[in-house]
């Protein structure tokens, strides 16, 4: 559109988190399927740090990265889905209500997946998570069973997430992948007041989030012995 500009919607740290998560979930699946358990545990430890980073960044990161920007109240959800049913879709500055629900579900599933993996023990007691020595064998086996189930749930949620992306692309002509790569969207999609006021990464806030991620990984490794 003539005269329109592309404005920043997603900061670099959030985008790096997103694509790192894609690669790590794929690596987590591949290492488990092929019995490469040393690398499976390493992948899990990186995920501990990555999730910790995201939760801290959700508190101190840029506007659209913060949990406080999520609109998931009943009125927002009902209004959004009502508009979709009528064929109306207006791009959101940040996550739309449906996308927010998807993000929450995937983050919860990942936390369950990583958390149970830390305590999981295989049936022979030969392979175990870094914190398995803190629980009984029976509890470790329960964690392993939940770990397996939660991964299937995670895959289903990812499938729904991808289906939604395809739906938005073909039915509403809204490419959700490109902004998560470039960070930018056409300003004509939004209201005049929509702008990422803190678009420049604060190196202090970034350092805090990275320090929290490293501290979480260090704690797990040291508690696990």
UniProtKB/TrEMBL annotation:
Q: Which InterPro entries match?
A: Cyt_b561_bac/Ni-Hgenase (IPR011577), Di-haem_cyt_TM (IPR016174), Hydrogenase_cytochrome (IPR051542)
S-adenosyl-L-methionine among the record's keywords? Answer: no
Q: How does it sit in the membrane?
A: Multi-pass membrane protein
One Gene Ontology biological process: respiratory electron transport chain
Coarse class of the primary localization is membrane
Domain Cytochrome b561 bacterial/Ni-hydrogenase intervals: 9-183
Transmembrane stretches, start-end: 12-32, 44-61, 100-121, 149-171, 203-221
Annotated compartments: Cell membrane
Concerning Pfam families, the annotation shows: Ni_hydr_CYTB
Q: Does the keyword Transmembrane apply?
A: yes
Q: Name one GO molecular function term.
A: heme binding
Instruction: Write out the entry's keywords from A to Z.
Output: Cell membrane, Membrane, Transmembrane, Transmembrane helix
**What are its GO cellular component terms?**
plasma membrane
Signal peptide residue numbers: none
What protein is this chain from? Answer: Ni/Fe-hydrogenase 1 b-type cytochrome subunit
Organism name: Hyphomonas adhaerens MHS-3
